Amino acid sequence: MKRKWNLLFALYCCSLVFHSCEDEVNTEPREISMNCLDTNLETMESLLENAIIGDEDGSYPEENAIALQQEIEKLQFGYSKGLAGQFTLQFEADNYCIQAEKAIAEFENSLQFTLPPGEPAELIVFGIDGKGRVEFGADPAFGGDDAFSVEAWLKYDKGFFESGIGDFIATFDGSTQPIEGWMINFLGDNLRATIGMGPQESRVLEFGSKYPQNYGEWNHLVMVYDASLAEGQLKMYLNGDLFFSKTNDIFNGAGELQSYQPNTKNYNMWAFQEPTDRGRTMTGYIKKFRFWNTAKSLEDIKVLMNSDVSGSETDLECAWDFTQVPEDDQNILDKTGNHTAKIVGSYKWMPLND
Amino acid sequence: MKKNKNYTTQLMLVVTVTILLMFTGQLRSQNQNTEVQVTGLVEDQEGFPIPGANVVIENIRKGVVTDFDGKFSISVPKGNVLSISFIGMVTQKRVITEETYLSIVMQNDEEVLENVVVIGYGSVEKKDLTGSIETISSSDLVRVNNTNVTETLNGKVSGVLVTKSSNRPGADMSIQIRGMNSINSSNEPLYVVDGIPSYSGLKYLSPNDIQSIDVLKDASSTAIYGSRGANGVVIVTTKGANKKKGLSIEYSGSVGIKTPTRIPDMLGNKGNGLEYVDYRIALWKKKYGDASLSRSDFLTEDEKRRIRNGEYYDWLREVSDNSLVTNHSIYSSGGNENSSYSFGLGYLKDEGMVGKEGFDRITANIGLEHRFSDKITTGLTSYISNNNTNHGAAETLINAYFLPPIVSPYDENGEYAFIVQPTSSKINPFIQNENNIRETEAFFANFSGFVEIKPMKGLSLKSQLAYQFDTDLFGEWIGTFTQQKSGVNESEAYRREARNRNLVWDNILTYKKEFFKDHRLDVIGLFSIQKDTHQGSAMRGDGLPYDSDWHAIQTADEIRDVSSYYWESALNSYMLRANYSMWDKYILTFTGRYDGTSRLKEGNQWGFMPSLAFGWQIKNERFLKDFDAINSLKLRISYGRSGNNNIGHDITWTKLDLSRYTFGDSGTNGFGLGGAKGNDDLKWEMTSEHNIGLDFGFFNNRISGSIDVYSRTTNDLIFNKAVGSVNGFNSIYENIGTTTNKGIEIGLNTVNISNQDFYWKSKFSFSLNRNKIKDLYGDKKDDLGNRWFIGQPINVIYDLKQIGIWQESEAEEAALYGQSVGHIKVEDVNGDYNLDQQDYQIVGSPNPDWMAGMVNTFSYKNIDLSFDMYARIGGLYNDSFAYTFTAWDNEHWNKADVNYWTPDNQSNDYQEVGAQSYNTQVLGQVSGTFVKIQNITLGYSLNDKMNKFLGLNNSRIYGSVQNPFTFSDYIGSDPEIIGEDLNTQLSLFPMTFTLGVNLNF
Questions:
Q1: Cα(B297)–Cα(B276) distance, integer angstroms
Q2: Average pLDDT value for chain B
Q3: Under CATH, which architecture does the A121-351 domain have?
Q4: Which residues pair with B967 in a beta bridge?
Q5: In chain B, which residues have their Cβ closer than 8 Å to the Cβ of A188?
Q6: Inter-chain contact A209–B272, Cβ cutoff 8 Å?
Q7: Residue B93: exposed, middle, or buried by beta-carbon count in 10 A (0-12, 13-18, 19+)?
Q8: Mutate which of A88, A96, A231, A249 to disrupt the B interface (most B C-beta within 10 Å)?
Q9: Measuring CA to CA, which residue among B613, B609, B579, B604 is closest to residue B594?
Q10: Do B277 and A89 touch (CB under 8 A)?
């Protein structure tokens, strides 16, 4: 009898035991590599040592030299922390290296040279960290309506955006509800089109596709919105081909299809920095920019990418060519004569290579 | 003249039957021996007389029934066998050679009880059954010990699919029998508890109070419930309705410990927080770039400190806890010659594993029966159940899933903090638990009383009046410090109540007649009227001045969403069922029910639902008589029609909709035409079904079972058909559309080993159902908007189909789709390199391909062991859990630990972390396949000596484990609740260790 009870108890305990098995946890400390800190420190010190500091062409501005010196000190501080064993994970060391590499690039970009007005050139705007942008002015017309097209030529290099969304051109307001306006932007691997939808709050129609990685080459982009279509209302064309097409599938809880909400709160239209969420930035070159009040077809786009505009086209709201150094960077009239742009912050007119 | 007519009828009957007997060679000469007088007394084991027992001379089928005192007297030809039988007891036989007095003590026969099937308004022995009906016995219900008896049907009854909404205590469950018939109306079967029909489900019943559950599946069986039988019928007979004689007290008690099992594997759980940190780094780098890791919101200083110190918090394991399930039930029955009674009390307390979740149920049942004579009996049955459910807070568990292990619930003072992650919107689940209350108080009561008169042998007139009442009061309080109110918005309270009443008057005429040799006629006629009323109200208050719970809504700053309703419906019914059995070989059952409902308009209110079934006991044919290996073999063929009355009471109405208009500071109500036009011509959705079944028993019934094949068609589906906006209406309800369900069901019982000390038996069930839409709007065209497709199941997943993950070798092809390596790869159906709705396809259906269940029972001397398995194979489900926790790449929240693509681990299952892949919705498409060991029970029954010493008749102690093993690829907790609402129903899967006793005094 006693054996029977023992058996019962043993079986019951077994079932409890198998349940309590747990996976092993790896708590071993990790090794942190300091190599990149070493390398960058050496590069930065060498740059500063060999640079000509001054106001003339071929020299670096003093303020950039000071900034680089500050970054060297930060890197040295990080190096000390690493040696003191204060880094738990590799990313903490890497963060110092990334910052150092950025400081090196910024310093190198600050090398001064001046092109005269009217000289054919390319415009690069250092938008990362909000240091530079192109402001196209503020106008309700920029928000578009049921049909519009945004056309631009863009060129960028590796690392052209960081830390989240990299905004190229936008008149967009997500700070209040409903979300309004439009934005051509980058996130992760994708080149995207984002438009505010409503009246429901916090809704956007958004789609993207892997951005072209032809660094250093121009790309012709056109974002087209056409509410009259049954599907594929939002499209993006790249270099004369359909890049992606997105059907409006934004419904509210009651099953009602939401519609595009033109920007009515902040009429600013900027390039390389989003007008309301100014953390959305990127660095790149812009050649031409046009905003059309109609939805351009693929055929239209194929023609447009190989032709110029006069400014008198009926459906053209605005158009700028950044193909030569302007007389006044703070007052660049568009081809329609109705709008004025200015370039703000850190940018440079670069001589044409060919 | 009348006398002549009677003679003529009798003569024709005799001639007909004689011819039939001659044709089959069954005519045998009767024994003309000398008769002797036999008298006797029939009693049960407790010594109580049994009135109504059959005392029959076997050869000549002549017999009497025992009187009120259990006595009988009969003349028997010498040498004949006298058979004494009573339903539920072992038949006894005596060879009569002389005049004698017999004292017969009848024994209860569990097997006999198992062979009795409740068919609605009566019962039959299995051998006379022509329909497809399966029974779950009391012992099965008690053995598996589920708090909700509905769950017990899964795997025990073929063709039945139980869907659980959640594993929270007191959660609702729904049943589908043989698939979905209706697209827009309910597919829930009719529940008949002690003769009272309702749609209230079984949640309020204690398994200890149930004598049996009979599931009527085919239309020939359900036709007896006419317009309510299309989705099948679940008949519950409580112990209170079956009165036993003699004093008996039964006690069942158990205590169980519930512990969460199969806790989903989230990144960094079980103290392995660095796993999560690695993920966070990979996500941010990929999504926002390497530089983003220096942002202040990448990791807060507190988070960095915890990583440095290895302080990780396992939210799911901390927010959940072990809990207790306590169950007590006492049942007593007794009586004397004139009266018998039964009385039961039950208490269940099922504590939840998260927060305040819990369910408690108090049940009471009373059965009284008084026999004025052997001709008049009256009785009363009542079942009362009080259920309190604490649903637990909404959003607690989902927050525990989202919050990463590098976040702590405590502030610097060691108190619970409200905001635990400044960079995220998710609040502390422990605070949520305290400030969100969601409760339901429900009360169910069934009362029925009857008078039964037996004016002559075989004839019974029974009139039963039944009243069912249930209330449901739901309340919710959402405090300021909740996820919903973000710690800043004012608190909110909500209250909703519903009352349902159901009055049923059934008048049943039963006539049983045995005539000639082996001819039995069993006729039931019914006249029934039913009226049900439904009323309820609701209100919501914003801005309560203090923590008033969900009461005192009048103190709110604003009271809104005030509503109330009342509606009623009625049903009149006439029903006739005739079961004719000839020579124990041929059985013919005809059922016809004529229902009239108030839910439809005049002209369509009445409908006739007939069924016809034929049974052939092949074993009793001469050519199989000598095959000892075959013990029973019966073929069943049936056809029937039944309707679906579970439709809106106002579905035929054209209604005015209420609108509120504001004028300045005040408002007024206005009424305008609603969007849908009523249709006076609406009829019931009608289901017709063919069923062929084979019941068998081989090798001394060591192998027995049944196979059923069915084909069911539902016509006249009620659709809200869109019409051109004419006269202000956008749609109109119409009877259009047809669905079909075809399937196979197998039930198999085997006695694998049976010797003196050791016994092993198995019970296996299998079912397969194929559901299809045959037509929708009469034009055989698909309805793309509603995702209804001709030739496909009613519910399908119509979407892009994942075919893997883009691999490095496919980078160029991926780029053609604008996608990257590590993104989700879906099928480009039309090959246009543009993934849009043109590439949508039917990727699956949330219906299992097949289901199977198996129960194995072993006994060795006084020890018994059983385990229950349940398998659901196939089916594709859209699951919010799988989607949310694998597809979302929120930079601050946690994610499931699954096989994500990395350059070093080129998985084909899940996209690269932070890759911003499109078409992530396909990750919510999960297989429904699982195999479960539902229950393992080990019991020990005390021997007679020990029982006697303790003053007991029987006693058993047992230990059981529920949900010990689940085999499934599902990444959530329980594959049986795929698709649960993440905010309000998300639950953990309990494994329960129970110790219990069954005592009989």
A1: 16
A2: 88
A3: Sandwich (2.60)
A4: B931
A5: 286-287, 914-916
A6: no
A7: exposed
A8: A88
A9: B609
A10: yes
A35-109 is classed in which CATH architecture? Up-down Bundle (1.20)
Interchain pair B293, A243: CB under 8 A:
no
Q: How far is CA B497 from CA B221, B387, B475, B537, B549, in A?
A: 35, 14, 9, 6, 16
What DSSP state is assigned to residue B828? Answer: -
Could you give the C-alpha distances from A338 to A134, A312, A325, B192, in angstroms and in order? 17, 11, 20, 79
- Give exposure, B937-976, as e/b (b: 16+ Cβ within 10 Å): bbbbbbeeeebeeeebeebbbbbbbbbbbbebebbbbbbb
Contact by Cβ (8 Å): B840, B869:
no
CA distance A253 to chain B (A): 15
* B837 interfacial to chain A (CB closer than 8 Å): yes
- What letter represents residue B408's amino acid? S
Cis peptide before B77 (omega within 30 of 0): no
pLDDT tens digit string along B543-601?
988 777 888 899 999 999 999 999 999 999 999 999 999 988 999 999 999 999 999 99
Q: Convert the pLDDT of each residue in A33-84 to its tens digit.
A: 999 999 999 999 999 999 999 999 899 999 999 999 999 999 999 999 999 9
* Cα separation, A155 vs A124, whole angstroms: 9
* CB atoms A207 and B914 under 8 Å: no
Q: Do A94 and B259 touch (CB under 8 A)?
A: no
CA neighbor of B528 nearest in space, from B224, B115, B869, B959 = B224
Whether residue B936 lies within 8 A of chain A, CB to CB, comes out as yes
The letter for the amino acid at A148 is F
Ranges of chain B with pLDDT below 70: 1-33, 45-48, 61, 87-89, 108-115, 240-246, 664-665, 724-728
Choose among B793, B794, B789, B814: nearest CA to B804. B814
Closest-approach residue (CA) in chain B for A281: B288
Question: Which has the closest alpha carbon to B76: B92, B54, B91, B61?
Answer: B61
**B308 interfaces chain A, CB cutoff of 8 Å:** yes
CA–CA separation, B63 and B84 (whole Å):
10
User: What is residue B483's three-state secondary structure?
Assistant: coil
For residue B940, list chain A residues with Cβ-Cβ distance below 8 A.
4, 8
Q: Are B525 and B122 in contact (CB under 8 A)?
A: no
Measured from the Cβ of residue A202, the count of other Cβ atoms closer than 10 Å reads 11
Tokens of B467: 């009243």
Question: Taking an 8 Å Cβ-Cβ cutoff, which residues of chain A contact chain B?
Answer: 4, 8, 11-12, 15-16, 19, 22-23, 25-27, 30, 88-89, 91, 94-95, 98-99, 102, 159, 161-164, 187-190, 207-210, 231-232, 242-245, 247
Q: Give bridge partners of residue B39 from the DSSP assignment.
A: B73, B101
Nearest CA in chain A to B272: A25
Contact B719, B713 (CB under 8 A): no
What are the structural domain ranges in chain A? 35-109, 121-351
Q: How far apart are CA B884 and CA B877, in angstroms?
A: 14
pLDDT, position B11? 39
Which residues in A lie closer than 8 A to residue B818 (C-beta atoms)?
A: 190, 208-210, 243-244
Does the structure show a pLDDT above 50 at A1? no
Rounded to the nearest angstrom, the minimum Cα separation between B257 and chain A is: 11
Neighbour count for residue B347 (Cβ, 10 Å): 16
Residues A4, B961: C-beta atoms closer than 8 Å? no
User: How far is the CA of B853 from the CAs of A37, B27, B78, B741, B867, in angstroms?
Assistant: 64, 46, 52, 21, 11
Q: Which residues of A touch B289 (CB under 8 A)?
A: 159, 161-164
Residue with tokens 């004569």: A337
